[in-house]
Every structure is written in structure tokens, then in C-alpha cells.
Amino acid sequence: MRIGVFGGTFDPIHNAHLFVAESARLLEGLDRVLFVPTNNQHYRSQAQASPAHRCAMILGAIAENPGFALDESDLAPDASGFTADLLPRIRAKYPDATLTFLIGADSVVNNEWRRFDDVLELLERFVIAPRAGVRADALQRVIAAVPTNLREKISTLNLPELPESATLLRTLLAQGRSVRYLVPDAVWRYIEAHDLYGNPQA
């Protein structure tokens, strides 16, 4: 089995997340893509929505795709929030699977990865989704710093750059504006029902 590991805060999950995950599933020949929300952000601010809310929104968003699943490994009380510690937990659950990690180009360029070589050693593939505003030369500098024997594991998905982000959605909601059609209907209804992200319309 070939499993994709898609980590992030998913605060909230949105259509661009789903588009990247489905594209990676097809282009990389993955049997399943795991959405792995984290509760420990070392390089970003703490998630606004609770883990329970974020997991509920993920489950609503992926309900109609049998190739998607939720994995709560990085929400465990002893989870460090570092990918190098997460991947052995995933591998223990799926000992016969090979792992492909999915990540946005902004996270690759803007974050200082700890034990990046260890992360790549645990993976079959490290797949980067293009993001609007991320310069190609900045991404290439990061990849060039990887040891040659591990660099061949890294690839970039052939996708358009997507401007949508959870930060944009939270900003719109805080301003009382609609995010309908930027998120799956199940997520939009959940945000409205639970008054998340300071949404005055809820």
C-alpha cells in the first residue's frame, strides 16, 4: 500500500487542501491520503479552532472520498509536532506501507525543518504542492541543500499555484464575510453552526 501523509493545522480545511490531496493521490498513485492535523505548531501561531472542531470539519470534508482518511497521531498528548517524530507513528500503524509526505511550497521555504534528512529517510517520496507567492528559486535553494542521495525523493506536483489559504478564510470570517464555495459545504455549515473564527453571521 502507498499512503500519502498530508499534515497541517487545517484551521479550517478548505477546497485547495482537497484539490492538492486528490491530485497527489492520482499523480503519485497513492492508495490513501491521510489528513493529519497537528496541535503543535512550532513555526506558526496556535490553531484558533480546537482539535475536536478541526477533526469534525476534516471528516465532513472528506466523507465522500473513500481514498481519504483522518489520522489523529499528531494530536496525541505526547506528540512533538515535528514531522521526524510523526512519521514513525504513522509507520507503526501501517508497517507494510510506503509513505509519501505532501506539503505546500510555502511550508518548505518559510520553515526551518528539524532533522530534514531523517524525514526523507523515512519516506518513499516528499511531494511539494506549488503555492502562490513562493519563488521557484527559493524552493530550489532548499532542495539543493539536501544530500544528493535523498534529493531524488523530492518532487513538485504539476499543479497551478493556488492562492487560497486558511489564513485568508479566517480573515474573511472575522470580517463577517462569506467563505461559502471556498470550503466544502459540510465545512461551511459546521463553521456557521458552531460560530467559529469570530464569524458574526453565525
Describe the protein in words.
It is a single chain. With 202 residues, the chain is of the alpha/beta class. The chain has one domain: Rossmann fold. The chain contains 9 helices and 6 strands. The chain has helices at residues 15-27, 51-62, 83-93, 105-110, 116-121, 136-144, 148-151, 166-174, 185-194, and strands at residues 2-8, 32-37, 68-70, 98-104, 125-129, 154-156. A 6-stranded parallel sheet has the order 3-2-1-4-5-6, sandwiched between helices. Helix 2 runs antiparallel to helix 9 (185-194). The model has no long low-confidence stretch (mean pLDDT 91).
Per CATH, what is the topology?
Rossmann fold
If helices are DSSP runs of H or I spanning 4 or more residues, what is the number of helices? 9
Give the overall shape, derived from the CA principal axes.
Answer: globular
Q: Quick one: CATH class? A: Alpha Beta
Mean pLDDT: 91
Q: What is the domain tally?
A: 1
Reading side by side through the largest sheet, how are the strands ordered?
3-2-1-4-5-6
Contiguous runs where pLDDT drops below 50 for at least 5 residues: none
Order of helices and strands: EHEHEHEHHEHHEHH
The helix/strand class is alpha/beta
Can you tell me the CATH architecture? 3-Layer(aba) Sandwich
Oligomeric organization of the protein chains: single chain
How would you sum up the major sheet?
A: 6 strands, parallel
Rg from alpha-carbon coordinates: 17 Å
The number of distinct β-strands equals: 6
Share in helix = 25-40%
> How big a fraction of the residues is strand?
15-25%
CATH superfamily: HUPs
- N- to C-terminal distance: 42 Å
